[in-house]
Amino acid sequence: MNQKIRQKIFELSDEKYKEFHNKLSPTGSNIIGVRMPLLRKLAREIAKGDWREYLKTAESKYYEEIMLQGIVIGCVKVDVEERLQLIRGFIPKIDGWGICDSFCNGLKFIKSNKERVWNFIQPYLKSNHEFYVRFGVVVLLDFYIDETYINRVLDTLDEIKHPGYYVKMAVAWTVSICYIKFPEITMTYLKNNSLDDFTYNKSLQKITESLRIDNETKLVIKNMKRR
């Protein structure tokens, strides 16, 4: 099965897209160059068949092979606990922000299982592994910035002390979206937090880059930068 899938992935490759993607990804040498809509279509085809056997024997040599596994996990019809077990097995394969963020975005089941998944991601948020933590942060970003969870999200972000660049950037990105959706609550947080200077200043930068923030507010935010 997996040799056929690898062959199919290569048939879908786009050389120009590969060149573009190589510039963005730290795993560039293993990129075949397949656009996401095509990978999603292939994942849906796999999900209709013996997807458990596919995931059990899936190859992970190429970026797209790992990405495809993640998409399949997100779209198969399965109960919550089995899906969480599949996620637990997939997370160690995440070695870059592209796979991490696309995988998280595809986990739509979280919308109706928020408290269960909140508990599930806590160990990852406390991990020493950079992309385990980023996984947890991006899940917060994608599914938990709402009225019920906003304060818990900000408290959680404040406790993350991992030194990894991709963790810091994910935290900053999440703080900026918290501000865009809940400006008053997040402003209070920004005035009293324990973020390191890089993450704090990057959060401010991302807020000011948003088209949803007016110029007057952007000026206030810029003046909050730590020197």
UniProtKB/TrEMBL annotation:
CDD domains: AlkD_like. InterPro entries: ARM-type_fold, DNA_alkylation. SUPFAM superfamilies: ARM repeat. This is DNA alkylation repair protein.
